[in-house]
Write a structure and sequence with these properties.
- By secondary structure, the chain is of the alpha/beta class.
- The N and C termini lie far apart (about 50 Å).
- Helix 3 runs antiparallel to helix 4 and helix 6 packs parallel to helix 7 (about 285-305).
- It has 14 helices and 14 strands.
- It is elongated.
- Helices cover about 35% and strands about 15% of the residues.
- It has helices at about 45-60, 75-85, 85-105, 130-150, 165-170, 175-200, 285-305, 320-325, 325-340, 340-345, 360-370, 390-395, 410-425, 440-450, and strands at about 70-75, 110-115, 120-130, 160, 205-215, 220-230, 270-275, 315-320, 350-355, 375-380, 400, 430-435, 450-455, 470.
- The strands form 2 sheets. An 8-stranded mixed β-barrel has the order 5-6-8-9-10-11-12-13, surrounded by 4 helices. The chain has a 4-stranded antiparallel beta sheet with strand order 2-3-1-4, sandwiched between helices.
- The chain folds into 2 domains: about 5-175, Alpha-Beta Plaits, CATH 3.30.70; about 195-470, Alpha-Beta Barrel (TIM Barrel).
């Protein structure tokens, strides 16, 4: 029996209260001592410091320690929200499951420590970083299954991976507050690096518009904004920007197509690359949020340059789920929304990409509610193989969207389209396919009944959004 079937009724302690040892709290719960051998007990400071230093020293002896291990932050807050009022009565059992699973799945010498009522640091040393990250996510999936059973949408535990330098970063740490401060300082450096990365390329960003065709009417009814960067770019890891001695521009990859010094690249030959390539893995969402805010402002400017509102098509602007879910990032985005003229709001569609499918329905509804006053439509991307369409409909989504993985083969892509259409029909929501990249996929989506279609196989992107216009249907 999974933990989600257990009930409880005690009152949850406020988050800000200091840690207690088990049996001291009114519901008998406390974070310490840890429930397994891999856990650190920060209330035994000498042992805490000794074990952390032993971990650091062992990690430093690895030949390629810079490429091994990672620090992962397990956030159980979405699990807490799923249990809602039952959480106080089940959280002791929940922590037994979480810590027991960590102890079972972590390697010899790896450690974890609970740093807050819903936050756990996991320190992994041995495996290569990508292997350590994968293992952490598998652990999160395992814990989710034991806590919540089959969670609609997948994993309810959020896992953030930091490429933390254990050798230098753990040096001299003797207490939990010191560890938390080091990690938070590292997070701040990452955020600063992502801001610097965005600012270094801001003047090369371009918002292009993908015409979206309504199948039933064979009419362009919307233009989807897609951010590009002008010129050749490298795929940046944010960690490359943490070296304070170098400027971001120095880290861009040179290409054989670069013009000689003093000569400009001809405009006709300047390539456009997806802006997301600059930062494929935004650690805390700062780069993605900057891109979201920039895209919204650019789209609003283009809409205001258009003519009469009644002739406009909708303009869709992608919005990362992390931007919406993180308070500070969301507020910056909403500041731009609040300044939008009414005429822009009437033509604006916000397209939420990457909203966690494992969010509790009430949380999804709460997040989408932030957007409703500022746009005409809300579209949410459906995560393939994650049955969460029903709770997106109840949360207030006006339509569901699918973006096919770039590396998906034709058979995999057509199967994904079919599954997407079936799920959307079950909840009676319109469907949007953003990237029909081949004629075969375009025709398949057309026949499958996708309501709104876009992609390179249909039409290229445009420099400005246009008006509604009728097109011929694809021919068989």
């Amino acid at each position: 029996m999974v933990l989600s079937r257990l009930l409880g009724g005690a009152t949850d302690r406020a988050r800000g209260q200091g840690p207690q040892r088990r049996g001291d709290g009114e519901d008998g719960f406390a974070l310490y001592p840890p429930r397994s051998a891999s856990g650190l007990d920060p209330e035994h400071r000498a042992d805490f410091a000794r074990r952390l230093e032993a971990f650091r020293a062992k990690h430093a002896l690895l030949d390629d320690h810079a490429r091994r291990g990672c620090l992962q932050i397990f956030d159980l807050d979405d699990v807490r929200q799923r249990f809602a009022a039952r959480w106080p009565g089940v959280r002791e059992k929940a922590y037994q499951i979480v810590e027991g699973t960590l102890n079972k799945r972590l390697g010899a010498g790896d450690l974890y420590v609970a740093v807050a009522p819903h936050l756990v640091y996991v320190l992994t040393s041995g495996p290569l970083r990508n292997e350590a990250e994968t293992r952490g996510r598998l652990i999160a999936a395992d814990v989710t299954a034991r806590l919540c059973g089959t969670v609609p949408g997948g994993v309810a535990i959020r896992v953030k991976t930091l490429l933390f330098d254990f050798t230098a970063g753990l040096q001299g740490i003797a207490s939990l507050p010191q560890l938390v401060e080091r990690v938070e300082a590292f997070n701040r450096r990452i955020d600063e690096a992502e801001r610097a990365l965005f600012d270094a390329h801001a003047d090369r960003l371009r918002l292009r518009y993908r015409p979206m065709v309504a199948r039933a009417r064979r009419t362009i009814v919307a233009y989807r904004g897609e951010a590009f960067v002008e010129g050749e770019v490298a795929e940046h890891a944010v960690m490359d920007f943490l070296d304070p001695g170098r400027e971001p521009d120095e880290r861009q990859a040179a290409t054989g197509d670069d013009p000689p010094p003093g000569e400009a690249t001809p405009a006709a030959k300047t390539p456009l690359r997806p802006a997301g390539l600059l930062c494929p893995h935004s650690v805390n969402g700062v780069f993605d949020a900057r891109l979201d805010t920039w895209s919204l402002a650019a789209a609003a400017d283009h809409l205001m340059q258009q003519g009469a509102v009644d002739r406009r098509a909708l303009v869709s602007v992608p919005l990362h789920g992390e931007t919406l879910a993180t308070t500070a990032l969301r507020e910056r985005f909403l500041e731009v929304c609040r300044r939008l003229p009414e005429s822009v709001r009437e033509s604006l569609c916000l397209e939420v990409v990457g909203l966690s499918p494992a969010l509790a329905p009430a949380r999804s509804e709460e997040l989408l509610a932030h957007l409703r006053p500022w746009c005409a439509r809300i579209v949410v991307h459906l995560v393939p193989a994650a049955p969460h369409a029903e709770h997106l409909r109840s949360a207030g989504a006006h339509a569901l969207a699918l973006t096919l993985p770039e590396r998906a083969g034709e058979d995999e892509a057509t199967a994904a389209i079919d599954a997407f259409v079936r799920e959307a029909r079950d909840v009676r929501l319109p469907t949007v396919l953003t990237n029909a990249r081949s004629k075969h996929l375009l025709h398949h989506a057309w026949k499958a009944g996708v309501d709104l279609l876009g992609g390179d196989a249909l039409t290229p992107t445009l420099a400005r959004p246009g008006a509604r216009m009728t097109l011929d249907a694809p021919q068989d």
